[in-house]
Amino acid sequence: MLSIAVVLRIYAEVYTIWYAEYHLGVPTEAELAARPANGHLCVDEAGTPYVPLADMPLHLRQTAIASNGADFLTRPNLMLPAMLAALVKGDGRRPDSRITFQVTRNCLHVLAPECCRGLDWHVGSLVFMGRLERTLSRERILESYLNDTYLGRGTVGVAAAAGAYFDKSLADLKVEDIAFLIARFRYPPYRRLEHSGRDVIIDRMLSAGFIDQAQAAAAKAAPLPAIDRQPRHP
Fold it and tell me: Where in this chain does the record put each Glycosyl transferase family domain (predicted)?
């Protein structure tokens, strides 16, 4: 019985890879490698602000990682067979891939808008996530995550969102501002963000040692910016 299960699993994995490669039209590693080494990876809108990762505040970069899996920069690349096996087993130890998953969502809409629908999306996104991490550096993926994600109020990326929500540049953001922006990645951008959503990020900043208790308390006491209800960005 064990050998039959192993054969079936291998067959399922090979078929999934073949299906994504030849049927879905998921962008290849060569196509990803041909994307610009600098600037927006997956935004097709002219005039969208872009800030290199090295020029972003350290707390912003650290908090983005801490809120999405602290080992993002160092864990092994996502591999489709291991991901499928973890999903089948319900293995809670599978790597946290929320940053890569968000970049996958952003990129597939731009690079292959017709490739994935319905159940195909789940297969295609798993394949593409692995290709992203095998082709691009983690820093490049994180940079795309922070620059290419829709954050509400008609803004794409943290630089535009900082201006829209706080009328500030990234360099002028306070602890509570950074926590708010990172929380916007985790909640629908058209929905009002409650204090509890922002405060979860503040607590993670505290646990990671980025801020102290006094800074955390002051950040939690700060008011939230108003959120205009807008339709989801296409």
Answer: 48-191
